[in-house]
Specification:
alpha+beta; two-stranded antiparallel sheet; 7 strands; single chain; 142 residues
Length: 142
């Protein structure tokens, strides 16, 4: 019972059932638009992939792009049924606010490249317990 209660409190989701939190959408799209890139839409399917990875990291105590079952991002996104032609993932831990995590990702060359990828058209962002952040970016089947 204790384990189920813990899992029920894992997510402070950056989205509602109707779509992304406007602050999350604005943060990523402000950066993209400043670079002449199109805005990203929110994907509830990518949200499921982000949630699954955040839950796995919280439950296993790991912090990695590799899941506890050895899965990579492509595996996790494919499990959701999302037919993709491009996917990317940013993870972070410890940042207490959306502004802090976005600043950290913008300062990291690899994470910034994911945020500014011209190949992606959608994203999802999750904040899990312990200030663990997972952003999945993608483009549906080309």
């Amino acid at each position: 019972m204790k384990r189920k209660m813990h899992l029920a409190t894992v997510f402070a989701v950056m989205a509602s059932g109707a779509g992304a939190n406007p602050q999350a959408t604005g943060a990523i799209n402000e950066l993209r638009l400043a670079q002449g890139l199109p805005a990203l839409g929110y994907s509830s399917v990518l949200e499921r992939a982000a949630q699954a990875h955040a839950a796995d990291m919280a439950e296993s105590g790991r912090f990695s792009h590799t899941g506890s079952d050895g899965s990579d991002l492509a595996d996790r996104v494919s499990r959701t049924g999302y037919g993709w032609c491009a996917v990317a993932e940013n993870i972070a831990k410890g940042q207490r606010t959306l502004a802090e995590v976005m600043a950290a990702w913008e300062a990291s060359p690899g994470h910034r490249a994911n945020l500014l990828s011209p190949e992606v058209t959608e994203f999802a962002l999750i904040e899990a317990e312990g200030h663990t952040w997972v952003m999945v970016l993608g483009a549906p089947g080309c």
